[in-house]
Amino acid sequence: MAKRRLIFDEFFFLQFVYALKKREIKEKEGIIFDTEGKKYKKLFNSLPFKLTEAQKRVVEEIKNDFKSGKPMNRLLQGDVGSGKTIVALLTAIMAVDSNYQVAIMAPTEILATQHMNSISKFLNDMDVKVALLLGLRLVAYGQGNNLVPSGRRNNCPPDESLDRAPGGQRH
Prior knowledge:
The chain is mainly alpha-helical. It is built from 5 helices and 2 strands.
């Protein structure tokens, strides 16, 4: 019985801390993003396919969150090939249109490289710098304007750039 009580107390404490953190985040002021910027429109209009109804719905939900001025916490999930990457890219380009830097994360280096290749193709004609960061290594990719060999990324001061390892040490 004592073991069950300890387990309950631990879960209760974790849930309590989570609820406090969630409330704290909701009270913060978020960023209002430009959801219909030039780059977004150019990307959306250049897609070689039509979005599915589910993709359209999710993009609209994210746009509404971006316009609300409240912090957003969202997990995009779906089957392989369901179009998560294009939704993530459309979302990311909204932030870029609002002069923010974006990181799209992937669980493996293989998937990160695949995302990098497909995203670079979609953004090839745009003035958006794209870089692949694996672990703490920056791998330069892209063509022309999209090639980022080192240092500073789009609209990011050097001290906030992705080229700093934990502890502020350059890699």
